[in-house]
Amino acid sequence: MYIGMTRRLAEFRSLNEEDTTVLNYFDEKEIHPEHTNIEEDQSPECQDTVEKIKQMVGEPRNYGPTPEERAEMEQAAREERMRRERGEKEDRERNEAEEKAQRAKREAEWQAQLELVQAEEREMLEAKSLPLRNYLMRHVLPTVTQGLIEVCKAKPDDPVDYLAEYLFKNNPQID
């Protein structure tokens, strides 16, 4: 097991020359590592080590947006919200107009159907009343008309009673 490890380590070292190590790269950039032993720090939450790192690196920086950038982002969000609300309002108004048009169309169709049904009812009633009308015209109206003419000529105190007496006397079926 150790033989394989030593063989691989030797192969790694032969492939990675001294010039291409990470430490050499940082030396070329003049960035030198600082060694800090945190095992020696006895302060709570390693506060002394944190202070030492702050001295080496500097105070922590906020890489978030600047107040101007934040204001621009808020303005863009407000504009987007207003645009979306306008779009939703336009959609709502368009939907309401479509519903109103459909409602008007359905109401017109309903009104046309209602008129058709009413016309059919009138025709049916006229067709059913035609035999009754013919009967009245043939048998009742001539005698009643004559009786009404007699009532107009005589001008009695009780015209209904006079008409009834006339109809009894001049009944064509009794003759």
Structure description:
The chain has helices spanning 2-15, 22-28, 47-57, 67-154, 159-169. Helices cover 75% and strands 0% of the residues. The chain has 5 helices and no strands. With 175 residues, the protein is an all-alpha fold. The model has no long low-confidence stretch (mean pLDDT 86). The chain is rod-shaped and about 145 Å long. The chain folds into 2 domains: 2-57, no CATH class; 67-169, no CATH class.
Could you tell me the radius of gyration in angstroms?
56 Å
Give the overall form: rod-shaped
Mean pLDDT: 86
Helix proportion range: over 70%
Residues in β-strands, percent: under 5%
Number of strands: 0
Q: Compute the number of helices.
A: 5
The domain tally reads: 2
**Unreliable segments (pLDDT under 50, ≥5 consecutive)?**
none
SSE string: HHHHH
State the separation between the terminal residues, measured CA to CA. Answer: 144 Å
Pfam families: Dpy-30
Organism: Geodia barretti (Barrett's horny sponge)
Protein name: Adenylate kinase 7
GO molecular function: kinase activity
